[in-house]
Every structure is written in structure tokens, then in C-alpha cells.
Write a structure and sequence with these properties.
Order of helices and strands: HHHEHEHEEHEEEHEHHHE
Largest sheet: 7 strands, mixed
Helix content: 40-55%
Shape: globular
Distance between the termini: 29 Å
Radius of gyration: 19 Å
Structural class: alpha/beta
Strand content: 15-25%
Number of strands: 9
Strand order of the largest sheet: 3-2-1-4-5-9-8
Length: 274
């Protein structure tokens, strides 16, 4: 199941075309708004950015390659913290969105390219490669090619961070209009280890909680500002944490898929060369 030949590419191309008709804020979260809940998307993004920062210390000398930049939200976030960001995507409409956004942002150290990862010049020039939610669209054969290419593009001591949706029990393969492979943590560990990378750490990119969805819906109904919604949201979390009832706010997963494949989560994986 090659990424560029699957229905997944068509799915993201359709998402990009739809995003071009939406406002600037909504375009930033292309692919993250299945229910139109902007508040949930903003909370998720803030949590992802915070957890990413705890995984790796960025500096002004670093060069980063982001694979699967989408609307460019990660590229624009990372650029002020490093020397250079090269952000690639194979979907032209996504790159068009990035370039349009950069007219306003004027980020001079980002290079947006409509480029296939396996066709990158094979020269070691990056300190970090960030796979931004793309590995789950590759079969194992293609994934191994991506890991090998990453090894060639990294400088000595270079690292990889990937963001992937995974299952806790068994691999799940979905087909149809949104083909995807939800691997387990251990599968990723083994595939990268075979290519000379150690999984240094792993953890959730963000925690999906029903309270966030509820607060987003209340915000839309009552027209509450982001700051007040976040204030009340955090107050509720604090109260439940004080009462040691935080688990009540976690989303139990009783779906048949969860019983068969294990729970689903959105994880960061941090790899370093051995």
C-alpha cells in the first residue's frame, strides 16, 4: 500500500481543496476538524506542541525536515526556534495553502516543497526529521524505505521524531476511502531497530478527553471566548484532580475494535541512531 497510490492521498487532497474555501484559522487545522470543533483542535495543538518541546531541545543551529507538512502548522511553529525548516508534502494543494499562509507570516527560514520523501537528494543535511503523521499510511516495505532514506539524510547524531496513531494490542489495517495501518509501539520499535535506530522514548502526543469536546460544543452554543472556555475547562480539571477523580474524565473505549485490537492513541516516537 504505497502512500502516493492509495485513497489516503485522495482523502487529504479533498481535505486541502475544502480548506481552501474556509477561513484562515480553520485552514490551519485541516484534517483535524471532523466535527468542526475548533476549541478541541486548539487544545490538542497546544498539548502536542508542549509534549514535543519536552522530547527534544531545539536550537538556532538546527535544520529540520518535516515530512507531511499539510497546512504547515508544525513548520510555522518550529521555524522561529531553529535555523531552517524544509517542509514537504506530496499534495500540491497542501503546499499552496502553506505558501498562501506564508505571504502573511513571512517566515524566511521555511522552504515549502511539493516533494516525495524518497526522491529527496541523498545528502546528510538535517539534524532532525519529523514524520508528521505519515508513517501510518505506508505498508512495511515502504516504511523500511522511508527509514533508510531518513538515515541517509540525517547528519551524524541526527534524530527522528514521528507522530503516529497506534493500537495497544494488535495491528489494525483499514481499507476503503481512508486506508491506514494502526501499528503497535513494538512494531515501530522493531522496524526502526532493524535499520539502526533506537526508540529512545515514546508517549501520547495528546490525550483525547470527552470534556474537551463538551467544552468546545458549549463554546459554540453560548459564544464564550477561548480564554473563558479554557479557564472553566482548567478549573474543572483541577477540581477533579483534587478529588482524585480524574479517571472519570477519561474516555473509556468499549467499541468492538478496542476489544479486539486494544485502545487507540496518538503517539510521539523519538528515535536516535545506534
Amino acid at each position: 500500500m504505497k502512500f502516493e497510490e492509495t485513497e489516503a492521498t485522495a482523502f487529504w487532497a479533498r481535505s486541502a481543496v475544502t480548506a481552501r474555501t474556509q477561513d484562515e484559522l480553520t485552514r490551519n487545522f485541516v484534517g483535524m476538524l471532523p466535527d468542526g470543533n475548533l476549541y478541541h483542535a486548539r487544545r490538542r495543538e497546544a498539548e502536542e506542541f508542549s509534549r514535543f518541546a519536552r522530547m527534544i531541545a531545539l536550537n538556532s543551529n538546527m535544520s529540520i525536515l518535516e515530512v507531511g507538512t499539510g497546512s504547515g502548522r508544525w513548520a510555522f511553529h518550529l521555524a522561529p526556534k531553529v535555523h531552517r525548516v524544509v517542509a514537504i508534502d506530496i499534495i500540491p494543494e497542501m503546499i499552496d495553502i502553506c505558501l498562501e499562509r506564508n505571504v502573511k507570516c513571512q517566515s524566511r527560514n521555511i522552504q515549502f516543497l511539493c516533494q516525495h520523501f524518497l526522491q529527496m537528494p541523498k545528502e546528510p543535511e538535517f539534524d532532525l526529521i519529523y514524520f508528521s503523521g505519515v508513517l501510518q499510511y505506508l505498508d512495511d516495505v515502504e516504511l523500511k524505505k522511508y527509514i533508510e532514506m531518513a538515515r541517509r539524510l540525517l547528519k551524524g547524531g541526527g534524530r527522528i521524531i514521528s507522530r503516529d496513531t497506534v493500537r495497544s494490542g494488535l495491528r489494525q489495517v483499514l481499507t476503503g476511502s481512508y486506508p491506514v495501518i494502526y501499528r503497535t509501539d513494538e512494531e515501530y520499535r522493531s522496524l526502526f531497530k532493524a535499520a539502526g535506530f533506537e526508540m529512545y522514548c515514546a508517549g501520547e502526543a495528546y490525550t483525547k478527553r470527552p470534556l474537551t469536546t463538551i467544552m468546545g460544543k458549549l463554546q459554540r452554543i453560548f459564544g464564550i471566548s477561548d480564554s473563558w472556555t479554557s479557564f472553566y475547562h482548567d478549573k474543572i480539571l483541577s477540581i477533579f484532580a483534587f478529588l482524585r477523580l480524574s479517571q472519570i474524565l477519561e474516555k473509556p473505549n468499549f467499541k468492538r475494535e478496542a476489544r479486539k485490537y486494544g485502545s487507540i492513541s496518538h503517539n510521539f516516537f523519538f528515535y536516535r541512531q545506534t
